[in-house]
Design brief:
It contains 13 helices and two strands, in the order ααααααββααααααα. By secondary structure, it is an all-alpha fold. The longest helix is centred in the N-terminal third of the chain and has 19 residues.
Amino acid sequence: MAQTLSRERSAARARLTEYFRERKTRAGVLARRLLGTPAPDDAVLSEHLIRERRMQTRIDGSMDAGLVPTAWAAWELLQLEAPTDQSGVVRTVGFLLGRQEQPGRIFGEGCRPYMHERRLCSHYVGGFFSAAPEEHPVAPLTFPSGVVVSDERGARFAASCFALRAVIRAGEDRREGVQRHVASLLDMDGLWSRDDEAWTADARLFAFGAIASAPLPLRDRAAQARARVLEGQEPDGSWRGADPFHALDMVLQGPTPEARAAVARAAPLLSGVILEDGALEREASEERALIALRALTVAG
């Protein structure tokens, strides 16, 4: 059995190696970096991709005035090793921070009986980012990993966590509003319990990714919350009700021994998916392939 799993993992890794061999994309650069097989022009390609993203931003630093596309642009720049003080990073992150505590965030906005009862109103939580004014629906909202959030409340929650992850990665974790957002997530006790049906598994994992690099004063509490999510992993390596690639993408944000063990348990599941016919031609296949390669690399 162990030999079969090892062969499947090796076959999946070989398929991903071939898939990324000549891709002139951010995912291709990152994949070849992981594999230790950079192309001769990858350094030049990275600089081109950084310039391209910087030029695609509007004068306000956004990508089409969208919270999620702008957070993703900032994340891509940082993954490509653009310095945190590089103009593209500064402008995109500046736009994100400008959307903090703005109308349309729902969580921590005003007080309604239902929200107050669940301690989700302005009396209890804050620091959330607004994906759009409330009169402009954002759902269904598709994220780069291919996961789709269909309900409005969940989409706005996921978008805020997605933006939080980016601004922390950009070194803005000392800001009061950023720390309040992290603390608010940690205070949502039901969020971290898989028995609370008010939260989906995907939402829980978005929060997991957002607190993976929590500010130092909140790091111990964040570790406890992440442990509760990891405990919910099924025997086959999945999380019940969650998109498997989204789940691994978020778990990979916190490289603790427990997270790495969870990734290793999921490796057979991912290998099987990658080896399916047409797996690398589906929607968001490049990003999902990169997630799978990262997972298989961590799994060893």
